[in-house]
Hints:
Helix content: 55-70%
Number of strands: 0
Distance between the termini: 93 Å
Oligomer: single chain
Order of helices and strands: HHHHHHHHH
Radius of gyration: 44 Å
Strand content: under 5%
Amino acid sequence: MTNNKDILEREEFRQNPFTAPEGYFASLEDQLRDKVLGTGKRPVGLVGVLKPALMMVCSFAVIIGLGYGVLSLTNSIGSGQPQMSAYDAVADAVENFDSAMFEYLDEYDIDGYMAQFTPSEEDIMRYFATSSTDAALYDYLASL
């Protein structure tokens, strides 16, 4: 503990160790202006012109290669048989659909069928009265 007090009392440890070099801020503005305006020479040769285009071609080749690799790993390429599209599947189902089914559905009178089994008000009240154990609901239905 006494050693820590000695360290804090020493003058060289109390000074700021971080300083800027002499004339740094005076030349900083000129350095930034030169970098922004690009006063430096750029290589203008065949390599300098073709390098960005070559990089773009390489990136497209990598993307296409990765896509081909995924398709070949999932056996999506070269299955030998053409894949049926959704439109072809629907068209095939419509062509093979039996038209007699439509005639049968037209002849089947769904409204008349439901009219036969329409419960009366008494049937509904009896159902709720016998299936419910709640006394308040039973009293309410009995009062109707």
